Amino acid sequence: MSPVSRAGARAGARPGARAPAALLAAELVHTLPSFALLVVAVSAWSGRGDGQMRTAGLVVVLVAFALRLVGPVYGWLSVTYVVDDSGVAVTSGLVARRTRAMAWSRVRSVETRRPWHLRLFRLNRVTLIQAGEESAQVVLGAVPDGDPLLSRLLTFAGPGSDAGVPAEPGGPALDGAAAEASELDQETLIHALDRRGLVLVSLAHGQAFLLAPVVLMTAWEAIDTLGLAEGLNGATERFGIVWVGVVAALGAMVVGVVGTLVRFHEFRVTVLRDGRLAIRYGLIEARERVVDPGAVVGVMVQRNILERLMGRARLSVVTRDASGGLGTNLIVPSVSLVVVDALVRRHLSSFMTERTYRAEGRGALVRSSVSTLGLVAVPVLVLGLTQVVSATPVVWSAVAALVSFALLRGVGALLTAELHVDPVADVVVHTTLFAVERITTVAASSLHGVAAWQRPGRRAGPPMLVTCHLYTGRARRLAAVRCDRQDLDVLRAALVAGSGDMAMTSVARGGGRPG
Amino acid sequence: MSAELPAAGDPGAERLADAAVRYWNIRSVIGGASFLAACAGAVLIFRAEWMLFWGPWVVAPVVVLSVLLDVLMLNRVQFRSYSFTVTPEFVYVARGRLFRRSATIPTAQILNVETVQGPLLASMGLVTVRFTCLLDVDGVGPLTADRAERIRRAVLDRRADSEVAG
Prior knowledge:
The complex is a heterodimer of chains A (about 525) and B (about 170).
Chain A: H1 3-9, E1 17-18, H2 22-47, H3 51-78, E2 80-83, E3 87-92, E4 98-103, E5 109-114, H4 116-120, E6 123-129, E7 138-144, H5 148-156, H6 171-181, E8 188-192, H7 195-205, H8 207-225, H9 229-239, H10 241-263, E9 268-271, E10 277-281, E11 286-291, E12 296-303, H11 305-310, E13 312-319, E14 328-336, H12 337-347, H13 362-388, H14 394-415, E15 418-422, E16 427-434, E17 436-443, E18 447-454, E19 463-471, E20 475-480, H15 485-497, E21 506-509
Antiparallel strand pairs in A: 1-2, 2-3, 3-4, 4-21, 5-6, 5-11, 6-7, 8-9, 9-10, 10-11, 12-13, 12-17, 13-14, 15-16, 16-17, 18-19, 19-20
Chain B: E1 14-15, H1 20-46, H2 49-81, E2 83-86, E3 90-95, E4 100-106, E5 112-116, H3 119-123, E6 126-132, E7 140-144, H4 145-165
Protein name (chain A): YdbS-like PH domain-containing protein
Keywords (chain A): Membrane, Transmembrane, Transmembrane helix
Pfam families (chain A): bPH_2
C-alpha cells in the first residue's frame, strides 16, 4: 500500500502522509534536460572568456542546480494527502499551512496526467475537478500505477458513487473500491483516431502550422545559444533564401504533424458503464479525463475554412469544470460531419437542434474565406508597413502584428456573433463565423444571467448586444450583436423559470477536513 | 415584492431613493475637488513649466466642467433612467439613457447579498446593495436602509428555500 493509501487508511487518526519518494526522483529527472542545456550554454559562454568568466559560469551552474533541487524537495516535504470516505484533503505549505478539501459528492470529473518523467517512475498526477473555480481543484501529485487509490479516485467520480463506499476506512474500503473500479473496464468506444486520421487532423486543424513556429523558435534559440547561427547564415548564402525557406516550411509542417501524432497518440473517447465520458490520449504525456454527464452543459462544433471544404468539424463538450477555450473538452479533433452528427445524436442528444450545424451555403463559404484572408493579410500588412515605412525593431513589428491579429479576431468574432433560443430543446445556440465557424449550444438552465444593451425609447428597441453568462471552470460570457427581441424574452423567462445552483469547494486555512 | 419579469429594457417596478441624486452630486464634487487637489500638489512639488500651463488652463477647467455636467444633468438623467425589480425569483436592473442596459439574474444564481454604507451614505441614511454573482451588476442603490433590507431578505430567503429543497 502506498503512503497515500496509508494516509487514507488512517485518515481519522492522524494527518496525511506524503507522496511516494519516487516523485522526488521524477521531478529531479524532469529538470535534467533543461539543466543540461544550461550547463552546455554556460560552458560555451564561459569558455570564450578568461578564468574569472569560468568561475562566474561555475557559480551560475551551482546556484541553478541548488534552486532546482530545492523546489521539488520543498514540494515533496510540504504537501500531504488525506483520502477517506468523506473525500480528499490536500495540505500544503510548511510555514503557512493551507488545506484544500473536496467531498466525493462534489467531484464532477477526474483528470489523470502522466508526463514522461512520471511515467518513468510509474506515477500519475490526478486532478479532482468540480463545478467551482479552476483554482479550487484538488491535485494529488503522484499516485503509483496499480495503487488501489487510483481506481478509487476514478470510481468515486460522479453522482451516486457514494453508494459503493464501505463504512469503514482502510484496506477493505480500498478492496471494495478496486472491485467496483474493475467495472470501469466495461466501456463502449465512441471514437478512436489512427495515425492516418491524426495526420489529416494535423493538416485540417492547422496543428502543423500552430506547433511549428514554437518548435522552430525554440530550435533557433538553441542554435543561437550554441553559436551555430553562423553556419545557418552560410547555408542561406550558398543555397539561396528561397530554398532555405522552403526547407524550413516543410520542416515546420513535419514538426507539426509529428507534434500532433505525439500529443494525440491513441486518441480514444469511450463511455463508461455508468454513463461517464472518458477521453484518453498522449504518447509522451498520457492524459485521461473522466467527465460526469451532469457536468456537461453544452457542445461546441468548430471548423475552419479547410475543414469546411473537406466537410469536417471538431466536436467538444462544454463542461462546468474545464479550463480550455470556453470550458471545453475535445471529443473529436477533426472528423467528417456525419460522424459528428452521429455522436451528438447518440450521446449528446439534449443539445441537438436544427441550428447545431449551420446550413451549408456559398455565403458562409465566402464569409469564411474573406475573413480568413483578412486575418492573415492584416498582420502581414502591419508587419510589412512597420518595417518598410519606419525603422521599427523586428520585435516591436511582430508585437504590433500579433496585436492587430488579436484585435481583428476578437472584433470580427463579436460582429458576426448571433444568438438563438430553442424553447423546445431549452438550449441557447451561439454562432460566430469569422475565419473559424464556431457553434456553441448550451442548456438555458446552465446560464447564470443575461444582460442586453438596447436603443432607448418609450419601449426599448431590439437588442444591440446581448451577453449570456455561464460558469465553465471560471466565469465566461457568450456575446452576440444579433439576437431577436423574441428570443431574448424567451431566454430571460427560461432563465428565471429554472436555474441550477453553483457548487463550491470548501477551502480552509490552517487545516481542515473534507466535508 | 413579487412582480412579473419586465420586458428587456423596460423600466423596473422600483426606483432609487430620492436622495440618490444629492448623494451622486456630492460624490462628483468631492471626486473633482480631490483630483484638482492632487494635480495642484503635483504642480507645487515638480514646478515644471508645462504643468503651470496645462494645470490651470486646461485640466482645471475640464474637471470643473465635467463636475458641473454631472451635477446639472448626468446625475439627474441617471436617476430618471435607473430602475429595478427584485422578487424572490429574479433581480432585474435597467439603466442608461443613451444606451439602455438591462440585466436579469435568477435569485438562485446569487451567491451572496452585500450591503455597503460608507460615511457619506451613512450621513444621508442610505445603503447600496451588491449582489455576488457571475453577472457584472454593480449593485442597486443608493436606497433607504429599509428597502435594502427587504431586498436582501427576498433574495437570501429564496436561496435558503432552494437549498433546503435541494
